[in-house]
Amino acid sequence: MQKQRYCYLLRVQYLGFRYSGWQKQPKQKTIEGMLAKTLKFVLADRSFKILGAGRTDAKVSAVNMAFELFVDDMGLGNLNEFLSFFNENLPPDIRVLSIKEVDKAFNIIQDAKQKEYIYLFSHGEKNHPFCAPFLANILQPLDIDVMIKAAKLFEGSHDFKTYTARLQEGTTTFRTIISCELKPNEVLKANFFPRESYALHVKGEGFMRYQIRMIMGALIQLGKGELSMADIQDSLRPETTMKLTYVAPGSGLLLHELHFTDQKI
């Protein structure tokens, strides 16, 4: 007899600073691993599976990430009570925001319509140590004005082969960025933050491994004078032979928004 399977979409946020990314890995503390470990207790040895809407790298945080929970045999019952019990048993740097049952036809990977990542950073002087989980700290002065202008070059459809690492065979490097804007940081504030900090906002349907961090890395190199505006333009041409190797630190990056094709989800 075939088992009855119940499917739920959960929204989650987390501070990634002490984790080795989302994906479960042997002998590593990961977000997926911590969720699975907690669910084993919360669901009292019931059969379940989780699938994330994507993967975040080591030290990367999320304000609005999602994962799907599949539970066999019977449903979760009162979802508000389940959510409360789940959060009680998660560590303080992970919080589940919401849960709802979804149709079996829902595909958390294919139905993800748009993601917005934000990269937070400061420059010119060393930050208060408490900033480390939230802001990348570039000690050298940066030309922010030229970085603001160059960020707009990434908008539209381009070949981003220069902006990824460990490229797997068959991966499409032509991607579309809906918007890319560098502006003063209004996302996170704290009394120990520097007087000025900045945020790179990038929206698109999907991104390759390290793509956002390498875009930020190129902008940082531009701000230092190590790259020119012409170099940025050349790096986006299909025929480019440029090799970019600087990956901006993971601790400045956070997944800010995640939208699905069905606006009700």
Summarize the helices and strands and which ones pair or pack.
Blueprint: E1 5-14, H1 31-42, E2 48-52, E3 61-72, H2 79-89, E4 94-101, E5 112-123, E6 136-138, H3 144-151, E7 156-159, E8 174-184, E9 198-204, H4 211-224, H5 229-235, E10 253-260
Parallel strand pairs: 3-10, 5-6
Antiparallel strand pairs: 1-3, 1-4, 2-3, 5-9, 5-10, 7-8, 8-9
Helix pairs in contact: 3-4
The biggest beta sheet, please?
Answer: 10 strands, mixed
* Number of beta-strand segments: 10
Report, as a whole number of angstroms, the end-to-end distance.
Answer: 31 Å
Average pLDDT: 94
Report the β-strand fraction as a percent range: 25-35%
Architecture overview:
The protein has 265 residues and is an alpha+beta fold. It contains 5 helices and 10 strands. It has helices at residues 31-42, 79-89, 144-151, 211-224, 229-235, and strands at residues 5-14, 48-52, 61-72, 94-101, 112-123, 136-138, 156-159, 174-184, 198-204, 253-260. Strands 1, 2, 3, 4, 5, 6, 7, 8, 9 and 10 form a 10-stranded mixed β-sheet that branches. A hairpin with an 8-residue loop joins strand 2 and strand 3. The chain is globular.
Q: Nutshell version of this structure?
A:
The chain is an alpha+beta fold and 265 residues long.
Task: Name the descriptors.
10-stranded mixed β-sheet, 10 strands, globular
